[in-house]
Every structure is written in structure tokens, then in C-alpha cells.
From TrEMBL:
PANTHER family: PENICILLIN-BINDING PROTEIN 4B (PTHR30627:SF24), PEPTIDOGLYCAN D,D-TRANSPEPTIDASE (PTHR30627). One of its GO terms (biological process) is cell wall organization. Residues 356-632 form the Penicillin-binding protein transpeptidase domain. It is found in: Membrane. Belongs to the transpeptidase family. This is Penicillin-binding protein. It comes from Luteipulveratus mongoliensis. Keywords: Membrane. GO terms for cellular component: plasma membrane. Pfam families: PBP_dimer, Transpeptidase. The keyword Membrane applies. Gene3D superfamilies: DD-peptidase/beta-lactamase superfamily, Penicillin-binding protein 2a (Domain 2), Penicillin-binding protein 2a, domain 3. Residues 156-310 form the Penicillin-binding protein dimerisation domain.
Amino acid sequence: MPRSTVLTAAGAGVLVAGGIGGYMLWHQHQQSSEQDEGARTAATTLATAWQNRKLDQATYVGTSPTGAAENFRTTTRALGSGPIKVTVGKIQRDGNAATADLQVSWTLSDGKQFAWTDPVPLAKSGNTWGVKVGDKSLWHPRLTADGAFSVDAGGSATRGEILGRGGAKIMANQNVYDITIDPVKATDQSVRSLEGIVGSSPGSLGAKLKKAQSSGSKGTIAVITYRESDYAAHKGSIEGLPGILATERQQPLAQTRTFGQPLLGTVGHVTAEMIKKDPQRYREGMYAGTSGLQETYDSTLAPTSGVTVTPRGSSDVILFGQKPRNGTSLQTTLDPKVQAAAEKALTKTGKTPSALVAIDVKSGDVLALANSPSYGINRALTGRYQPGSTLKVSSTYALLTKGFSTSTKVPCPPDIVVDGRRIGNFERETLSDPTFVEDFAHSCNTAFVKATADLAPGDMRTAATALGIGVDWSKQLGVGPVFTGSVPVTTGKTDQAAASFGQARTLASPMAIAVMSGSVARGSFIPPALVTNPKPGGDRTPKPLNAGAVQELHSLMRKVVTDGSGTVMQGTPGGDVYAKTGTAEFTQDGKPLVRAWLTGWQGDVAFAVLVEEVATGQTGGTVAAPVAKDFLTSLQTG
């Protein structure tokens, strides 16, 4: 009677008796072990061949390796060419027949894992074990011998939206039209016509067409994605062009192409670089976030398409299925009204790069983060600029927390010599017998050099940190990269002198300066937040500031507007404005230039404005202040 065994990873212990009976038992065990090993070898060979898609390298009983390989290709063609993992599980043998459980995991074209257990029959023919071909499929237990898989990727899902305060839709799903070229049907003439319609360089799309045709590629060539209104303007010209396709789908869009850029980012075709970096996630033909928040939170926003695997001709028999799932919307603190006002105000700077950040004073939430131009770097978040006299807010906080009185008379000469180096006021202005209140209002550099001379090397850094400059609040913000600023410990008298008015080695982003003003306005430092769901990490517990110093700064920053370097802000609708101007000097290609700043708050809105490059002679009060005034005015009247 044949012996039935179950093969597992570990072999069983064997009791060997003495004499003839013991020999027979040992001999039978040897024969059984050889049978078991033969069955396992046949199963392992099939698993390896399957995983490598070289099914003609396995051993079969009842068909040829070539026939089995062809049957495999026909049966599994719909599953695609994704990675396959096949491992051998339990093997149960009964004499010269056995069954091996193969654990199969097949990656479908959209990245989903179709996994099943395939009980493969094995048989011994002569002295060789092989895979037995019968009246059932070798490739899945619920397929017939001549059956095949069918894959339905039907069912669509939408990408998550980007939301702002109160659930306002910052980027909402809207119809878009992808214009592509079918290299099989397109003609040279139709592609030349398309170049003129979409504004491509003459010959650029033609070159892509020739490349695709010479390589035999049948995949469509992406050209441009139009908003619905833009497509409507070009529809008549595009329709009817041979091989030019317009495919409708939905995609999150902001109110204009430039709104919230580059912060919000864009959605588009995945690039070859993205696929190379993460082939398990990205595949050719996919759409994904390619920049900004859309890229950072792509795994949250991206939808999951539906897919079902069935036997061909039996759609009611579900072998694998997953319903489509919409992406999750991203919740931010942005206020579309405030963002629109910020972007409108920046148009005043023309082609000069600029940025404007607005923060809610009560909560520390970011209300607006605007950049001009809207393409390129996110200078509002990542820019590294000398903050100029806006840093005098921090320097003054250092003085006030050390017992300094604003009623102290601090001379404001046109220039001053520190360790043999001459340091002057921006326009060599001077004040007659001023108190520190007047020095602050008129932004006198030489007075700040004198006033801060006795501070310890780390005092200005400590003050800046207390106000939020140089503190790592990137986790609480929920977006990166971000530059939070740097006010180093000073290394000598001249370094300390220049640092007191935001030059030397001091650096900040517009975001960092807005955080500083928000801290002074509320009387505590709260790490700013921009993305709130998914919930970012980090603690946002307010850290109280020195109340007396904060009260003094309120008076000083109001004086800047009523009787100082920020008088442009007078008459701004919405109430009293508290501000500090900044003019940071630098040299580029041997040419002296300045960066113009204004920071402060009005009511519950703290802000910082940077105009990146202006000619010498212009100041924060004459260049950045008008931008800030336009911004605040729009909030009241827009």
C-alpha cells in the first residue's frame, strides 16, 4: 500500500530498529525521502519558472514545456507584466502523486497585489517528477484548462481636494482635457498644426513623434492639459486633426493658474525620474502631484482606482476585487480671500521677485503665502535673506528684556566707527538729541549699534529664538522645505554691530519675519501651522513673552507708522497698523542693491512683505510699505 506523507520545512525524526526489520524500515524511509524530495524539486522548479516567466524551464507530465508556456501566456495575458512572486508552501504526497500549494502574488498594472494559493498537481513519470497537466488550469484553481483571467479596471475615483479655512475649496476638482498624440495615427501635418495651436516650438512635437514611431512605441505622447475654458477656445482647431486626442478627466484646480503657486503645486503626468525613484508607486501614464503640496501629500490626495479579476466569460465570479476609492482632501489654514489679496498686492512689484506672508495673530495659522513670480522657488518659505531693520524688533526685545528703557537718549550720528570699521545709516540720516523711541521709529542703525554694544554675544540670538526666528517649526507647519531663520551668536564687536540691524550673518525668510511679528502682536510665540489634516507633528503650545517688553514694542511699532519710516501706512482701512520697515543692503555682480521689507500687523492679521531687489536709494518704507497697504486695503474693500 503506498505511503501518504505531508512535506513541511522540517523533516520528521526516524526510529531505526535492529536486524532485517530495521533495515527494511530504513530502506522504506530512504525511498520515501527520495520521493518527497523529487516532488518538492518539481514544485520549486515550477515556482522559479513562473516567477521568471520562463515556463518552458519546468518539467511537465502530460504536455510539453512549450505547450505549457504557451498556455500560461494565454491564460495570464490580462494580468500584465508586473512583478510576480511565487513560493512553495505545503506539499502532500500519496505514492507517485502529490499536490503542491504555490503561494502566488502578482502585481497588477495599477500596483495592486492579486494573491492566491494554487494547488498544483504533481506526478512521477518513470524516475522523474513533474507538473501533471489535467482537465483543470495549472494557474488558478477556479479556471478551466483552457480558461483565462479577465481584468476590469472600471470604476473611477477622484483626487482629494485642497481645502482652506472653513472648508473653502482652494483646489477643487474640475474638468480638464489632456491633449495627446497617437503615434500610430498622427501625421506630420497634424502635429505641425498642433504645435501652432498649443504654442510649442516649431518641430518640437514632430521630433517626439518621429522618436516614438522609430522605436515602434504605441503609447500616446503627452502635450498639454487644458482647463475646460481654455479647451473650449481651442476645441474647434484641435478636433479633426488626425491622431490628436483630447481626453476629458477631473483634476484639482485653483481659481487661476497662478493662484497659490508654487505652494499648492500641480498635478500632471508622472515623469521618468519619478518612476525610476519609486517604481512600486508610479507607473507610466499615471497622474500625480509633481510639485508643492500636491507632490508632498500625493499619497493622501491620490485616488485608488477600482479593479476586478474574473475568469474570462464569468464576470460574476470575482477572483480578486477592490472598489475605487477617492483620495482624501487636504485641510489647510489658507484663507482664499487673504491669499487673493496678497497676490493682488504683489502685482505692484512688477517683474521684481517678491513675497507676502500673512498669519492669524490669535492662532498662528498661515492665512496667505504668496510669491511673485508664481513659478519657480517658494521664496516666501525657503528664501534666505538678510532681514535688515525688520530684525530691530528682535534686537529691541533683547534690550528690553535686559532692563533697557526706551526713554534713554541714544545718539543717531550719520555713521559710527566700530573696531576700525565705519558703519552708517542707510541714507546717512541723523536725528537731533533723540530718545530710543525716535531711533526705532526712524530706523537709525548707528543708535542700535550703540544701544546693543553691551549685550552678551548670545543675547540677540536668544531674543530672536523667543520670537520664533531660528526655531524649527517645520513639523507644526506641515510643509517643507522651510527656512525658519538664523541669528547666530555674535563673534566680535563689528559682527554684533551689524547683527543689531539685520545685516552681517543674520538671515530670515518672509515666513520667519511674519512669525516674529505675530509673536509680538499676541504676546507669545506659537509655531505656525499651514496643513492641519493630515495632522502634522510637533507641539503648538503658546510660549509667553516678556509682557513689559511686548507692550513697549507695540508702542514703538505704532510710532513707525505715525511718525517714522512707515508713514505710508497711515490711513490704511481697517484700523491701526503696527509696523517695522527694513532695508537690507547687498551687492550682486558688483552692483549695490537693496532688499525692501515691511512687517507688522493690523487687527488679527500679521504680515511680512519682501521685495527682493530694488535700486539703492529705495527703502522698505517706499517700496514694501505700499505693497502692504494695498494688501490690507484689499482685505477691507475686496
